[in-house]
Amino acid sequence: xxxxAGDASLDxxxxxxxxxxxxxxxxxxIRIGARPLGQLILRRERHYAKVIGGSLLMTIKPRTxxxxxxxxxxxxxxxxxxxxxxxxxxxxxxVIGLMLPTLYIKHLREKRLEKLNEQLVPGIQTLSSGVRAGxxxxxxxxxxxxxxxxxxxxxxxxxxxxxxFGLGLEDAMSNAAVRIGSGDFGLLFAALLTHRERGGDxxxxxxxxxxxxxxxxxxxxxxxxxxxxxxxxxxxLGAMPMVVLAIVYFIVDAKGVERMFTSTPGKIILxxxxxxxxxxxxWIKKIMDIDI
Length: 292
Prior knowledge:
Layout: H1 2-55, H2 62-84, H3 87-132, H4 137-147, H5 152-164, H6 169-180, H7 183-198, H8 202-226, H9 228-252, H10 254-262, H11 264-288
């Protein structure tokens, strides 16, 4: 009885010591990691503010994106840990939850840039028509800001608004070129800046720019058509491991597939498959990404 009581007391002491050690280690980790983590969050929020408020011209607060990222991180971490039952799966879910907001914002920016490039040639034609009708450059820009479809209307309205608030027209056009991040828009604003410095027939200059950009876009569409098969191949190869795994699970050997998710060698193999699959997809995409 005395020995039993002594063992119980010793076990309780060990549990208390372990709990105190865990608390101290957690406090030290929080103390050490709080500052770098805060700096990382601030950098990400500055990036979100630049992309959302600058490139996308949206009014969403960067802190809202940070909160949504945190929620997604916890959700996917718990989801993958529940599915796989391993810390490795939880880490995969954590990475997915961390990357999803950034990938979605990048997708929105790419779609917006695609629409802007499609609307650029009609916008230049509107500028040229306004100049030939007797309007000066600022009035022609206001015409595009009023009559063009969105998102081109938003970009030119933002440019004109910066000019009305006291910023020089040259600086406003330079800001628009940087904000949009398109080579075609950069060509347009560079030509307009050159015209303001050296003069000349603005209508003729705009017509030449319109023809040059139309030819560039024609070549880009031609390249997209020629590389469409390669991009489709990349998507098919990226989805193939999951398709093969599903076929093996439902038709060939379900227990073998389950062992891949539960045993250590199987988890290592799955991790290698995921990494190699991502690298192969990015490699093919890089090969197919031809810049004119």
